[in-house]
Amino acid sequence: MNFKIASSPHTHVRRKTPAVMLFVAIACLPGIAVQTWYFGIGTLVQICLAILAAVAAEAACLKMRQRSVLPRLKDNSALLTGLLLGISVPPLAQWWVVVIGAIFAIVIAKQIYGGLGQNLFNPAMVGYVVLLVSFPLSMTLWVPPLSLVEYPVTVQDTLMLIFTGYSETGFSLAQLRVDLDGYTMATPLDTVKTALTNQQTYQEILNQKVFSEGTGIAWFEVNLAYLLGGLFLLQQKIINWRIPVAFLLTLTLFSFILHSASPDGSASTILHLFSGATMFAAFFILTDPVSASTTAKGRLIYGALVAVLVFLIRNFGGYPEGIAFAVLLANMAVPLIDYYSQPKTYGK
Amino acid sequence: MSPIKEISWQGIWKNNPALVQMLGLCPLLAVTNTLINGLGLGLATLFVLLGSNISVSIVRNWIPNEIRIPVFVMIIASLVTCVQLIMNAYTYQLYQTLGIFIPLIVTNCAIIGRAEAFASKNNPLLSAWDALMMGTGFLMVLAVLGAIREILGNGTLFSGADLLFGEGATHLTMNLFNVEESFLVAILPPGAFIVMGLLIALKNHYDKRIENLVVGQQKSQKIERARVTLESQS
Q: Is B184 within 8 Å of chain A by CB?
């Protein structure tokens, strides 16, 4: 018998927290780029605002808790929370929306629980849900892709809209969402939800302007870009494959069954997978190392649970998109999942 | 501390029904979306508590121990019905705003808790004072919670003051700032839980500071070593 003995050193070099956070942020870049390309410079402004607010809130909280400020800011976690929140809010929402969300995410959802590693809920999603519940109007005003709007939104318009609420020529955001024919355009998922309640069939809905070849214009590409970033994270071994795979497979399975059962009354699998925040959530939100499950089996359960909740909310709930709610609900279940999915000790 | 002082301290701060005992959380969280609603329910609870504590204390020696809880509940329920009818007559709009939470005062554990823990063991005068202090403690939390949620959510204070204090109080309503979209989460139930949690945290923070102050004073006193051996005495 030949026992191979690897030569020293045997210790692994673990990536430190700041590097992990930075890698996740970098993996977001393709998605952000595509989002900016289709929805305008507003996305970048929102991200900057969110990051600034999050880092400032983190610093203030650390100071109040009498912790060392700079070393803890350097773990990049506040930066990442701000980044994820900035990506999630509508690009032309007014500035105070995202600032309130970021402050809430850091102060209430993270620092009050005791800072990084102690929070029960995903801070970015808490911020998002608070915004969605508090400012339903601002948070649902997604601009249509730039190629579809009647009045092109310039960089100056974007800044004016975010900081004053009106564009340079005096249009409000609600007016800018109107298309050439005078119809207000919403996101693909929103359109599907509204039209289905109006007794239209799914095939009719797909003829609307915001769709092309069965998927939402721009949203398909945005999701593809986040999928790419997610695969990069997987390849770098920053995130574990279990949560995204369980999430996407379960969502595919459930939406396939429902769509096969009623092709006219429900959205197709491809629309479920490539619209809204599906890919972004699968790789960037669900995989939060603090608030997600940490055992091997638990991760599969966690991913599947979020997928079931997302599926239920999208198809039968009041909101067109349900990822933020699903993530928070699943976060609540994590201690239980972890408790019952502990691996067996060897030899017992 | 004299019993009167002790009761006041217990009711308003140390053993506050809302912040420490956490009793009656359901109405506390449900109706405090404005200051006036909080005040209205707080006053109603205060009156019921006062009445129930006095009545229970008067009859405490005649109630058989086995059936004391049903008797307490009946006393409280009849008082709540009185308060409900009075509010229906004099502050009708507030009565409608508070809705089911007025009759639900019957189930407020703070009231039956005081009847059981205090009034059934003490004389009417002390019981009345206890009810007043406990009720005030509860009322203060309701008012503060309502004020914070109203300011955050609507940017106003004392909105609907005429519902409680009559027409003349309309000018009390203050518009602190105008917002295009109100911060709805503060008005909705989650906001109540969050603000309540923050209030409790704040109270604990002050308790700790007071404790530290007291301990610090004790430490600064000179500690003299007690010498017991003969050698050291010389």
A: yes
